[in-house]
Amino acid sequence: MKNLFLLLFCLSLSNCSKSGSNKHSVNTEIAQSKNEAPMAVLEVASAPIPPPMETPAMEHTSPKKTDTISRKIIKNGDMRIQVGDIKKAQTQVNDILKSNKAYIQNEEFKNTDVDENLDLTIRVPHKNFDALVNSFSDGVGSVLSKNISSDDVTEEYTDVSIKLANKRIYLEKYRDMLRSAATTKDILEIQENIRELEDEIDVSEGRLRFIDDRVNYSTLNLSLYKEKVRSSATSKVGFGSRFVDSLTEGWNSFVGFFLGIISLWPFLLLIPVIVFLWRKWRSRKRNK
């Protein structure tokens, strides 16, 4: 009997020790979980926050980069050169034009009693303009006058380009509206707006083409001048030549005056008739 009680007492003690150990293990696990929880929170809090994703709206509102426009410089010039022989000088000019890839846009020749003039309008690539002017200054003749000018049209070109781009955008919007227009009135109004925009776009495109042409090809107005030598024994203008010139000019003036009087012959015929009628009227008035 004693042995049975001892056996039961041992069993109860072992159960108590197990339960105590289980409680202790559970408590340690709870404590560990309590201690580890703040660390997890700290780790999450200290983790870097990723940047927000850009939405389509943000991309749409971001400014777009515009292409930069190179500077637009228009160079023009005027030169007057005195030469000894017009034909020889013209041959030299043609050789200079070929070497600088230039061409003659307009040519005009004048031959008077005192001089010969050959006026040329030359178009030359912008990069060869200075070389062309220097060639004319050095090897053709004596430069009487030279005027070179540069005009910066970058601001105008940029302004026209921006307006042109906006007009094209509006044109596409009007075309979309035309496809969905329901009434005849709306269709006519939209078509009128489209027509006006197309005209404005044509004008802007023409202006840009004109500026590009003037920028890419510079213009030089070249005048070749030759003074004629007076025919005289001394090759100088002396008293005899001046006396003959004065007689010639006097005779020409007299002929011009005489021809001018003759051109007034209708008035010369009317004056006697008017005088005759006036005297006849006065005589009748006195008789009365």
From TrEMBL:
Pfam families: DUF4349. The keyword Transmembrane helix applies. The keyword Transmembrane helix applies. Residues 71-279 form the DUF4349 domain. The chain crosses the membrane at residues 254-278. Keywords: Coiled coil, Membrane, Transmembrane, Transmembrane helix. Residues 180-214 form a coiled coil. This is DUF4349 domain-containing protein. The lineage of its organism: Bacteria, Pseudomonadati, Bacteroidota, Flavobacteriia, Flavobacteriales.
